[in-house]
Amino acid sequence: MEDVVDADRFAAFGMADDRVWMMVHSGSRGLGHAILQEQMARGADKGRLTSSVDARAYLLQHDQALGWAVLNRRIIAQRFFEALGMSGRRLVDICHNSVTPHDGGWLHRKGAAPADRGLVTIPGSRGDFSYLVEPVLERAEEALCSLAHGAGRKWSRKDAHARLSRRYRVSDLQRTKLASHVICEDRRLIFEEAPEAYKDIGSVIADLEHAGLIRVIARLRPLLSYKTRAA
User: Fold this and answer.
1) How far apart are CA 172 and CA 212, in angstroms?
2) Domain-embedded: residue 41
3) Which residues are annotated as catalytic?
């Protein structure tokens, strides 16, 4: 971590002594897809009445998937800490795909971080900075209590692989312009997730600040990125 932008606010959240951060980006995508397929097979494409048995069953599955994602991230963090001989504490845990009650209806966030649940991390690519931000609650409703959950892709995974595999070797992508290291066990994934495939995180943060939706607390520099894909 480097360049604390607002040291007083950083300390106010009890984080003044936290000099190294571990960010875990993982959830329940496979489980979520299975839930979707089951629901579609049962006619969910026609919609559900909130009071119906099917809707209640779906919302239960939804909440269970979110619970599993929280546990999944906790287990990953614990295993990394144990491997490194370190310890740590959880500071922020958010999801960016969810359905929640909102203003008498339902708010579906797809690739959007909640702006009504405390601090939010907005990551850049593995070769760029990430940001810890405080949502401005007075302006949150203007954006449906939601924020960008990251830099966002500039190229699709297929395009990124096609463009970059002709220009780089795998070894070229194991270091970034910020001198961070990349460990990736999947040859295709290291191209798909290359920094060039993502938008400029600085522009995303600047737009959110200009809109009055966030206050930047800290800018975080990557040291090591570990990416893998289950077989």
Assistant:
1) 39
2) yes
3) 149
